Amino acid sequence: MDIETVFNANDRQIYEREFRDWLPEKIFDSHVHAFDESNFQTGYNMPEKSCFQKFGGTFTLEQCMEIAEVLLPDQEFSMNCFGNPDEEADLEAACKYTGEISDNKRVFGMALVSPKDNIETVKHRIKDYGLVGYKPYRNFVNWMDYEDVTIFDMLSPEQMEFANEKGLAITFHIPKAARLADPCNQKQMVEICQRYPNAKIIFAHIGRAYFMNNIIGFLDKINKCKNAYMDTSMVSHPGVLEYAFNNFPRERIVFGSDAPIAFLRGKSVEINDQYAYLMGENYAIGSTIYDADKIVQFTTFFYEQLRGLKEATTKAGFSRRELENFFYNNIYNLLSGIKV
After folding, report:
1. Domain count, the chain
2. Distance of CA 334 to CAs 137, 199, 245, Å?
3. What is the pLDDT of residues 183-212, one digit of tens each?
4. What is the DSSP letter of 78?
5. Can you give the CATH number for the domain in which 228 is found?
6. In what order do the strands lie in the sheet with 107-109?
7. Distances 77 to 97, 137, 159, 196, 255 between C-alpha atoms, Å
8. Alpha helices (runs of H) in the chain, residue ranges in sequence order
9. Contacting residues for 84 by C-beta, under 8 A, at least 6 apart
10. 296 within some domain
11. 250-272: per-residue pLDDT in tens?
12. Does 280 reside within a domain?
């Protein structure tokens, strides 16, 4: 990996001008995909346009820390990580690697979990690898139509009961095309928090709400669930972020990036009650519009997220302490309190 493709002189100017005097001393990224070659089953061929190709098909702890050091030169960087939830992932090997790099001080880890996993297997992965929770994904619910998958399909009742018993954290990438606005998601987000009150339920990407009409009015019930959290990974829309900060308890919103996707060059934009990724690199990460003619000079999604957060926290009237809590204390206190 050539670090210059991630961080260049223009990025340095952005950091110096926009972030150096604003960012706290400690940053805890709650949403990082970290994995080595063992993450995949034998014979796996990564798609040519996969964003992970930029990093050589892996994203190891060493790669992450190298990039964090240049993007955040004045910050102490910590993270919560999990493997790559590909349909062809070797879940045992992925969890083993996550456990090997986790010290539950600076690096915490979650187990990739399929609802088909035997509960004893899940208990082994949590206990023997020292992991603080689960990362389910709807890709693993591969016996039904993608759009029919619900939150309750993503983990088995036995897996949820174990998480509740042990007070584990669970990061949900919620399903459905309408995301946070989907009525089924609205109902089940509240139900799963109420049914398993000791589990810490983190809804990734603020419930995948990347544009304004996908969030307005949709936090009014879930914000009352005291074990519900939101991470901000890949959300750079200042309006969405400000709305979340003003309509969901700030102590339960945590910083996340979705690295290494966040280390690609691009920007998420709202278009006609939709969102799209404008990309400066030819990788597929969803609703991508690639600038093939290189008309625009992009910085990283990571920096665009920080820009959105700076505007949103300023408009929301964050104190310095609230900023420190958001970037570090909220998630560190949550995960460090889990005993496995």
Report:
1. 1
2. 21, 11, 18
3. 999 999 999 999 999 999 999 999 999 999
4. E
5. 3.20.20.140
6. 26-33, 76-82, 107-109
7. 20, 26, 31, 31, 12
8. 9-14, 61-71, 91-101, 119-129, 157-166, 183-195, 205-208, 238-247, 301-315, 320-324, 330-336
9. 33, 35, 39, 40, 52, 59, 94
10. no
11. 999 999 999 999 999 999 999 99
12. no
Q: Is residue 292 in some structural domain?
A: no
CA proximity to 236, closest of 201, 203, 206: 206
Indicate whether 56 belongs to any domain.
Answer: yes
**DSSP letters of 13-70?**
HHIIIIITTTS-SEEEEEEEE-B-GGGB-TT----TTBGGGGGTT-B-HHHHHHHHHH
Q: Is the model's pLDDT at 274 over the cut of 80? A: yes
The token pair at 96 is: 């083993």
Q: Where in the sequence is the domain holding 30, given as residue range(s)?
A: 23-264+302-336
Question: What is the reported pLDDT for 340?
Answer: 83
For residue 177, the tally of other CB atoms under 10 A from its CB is 9
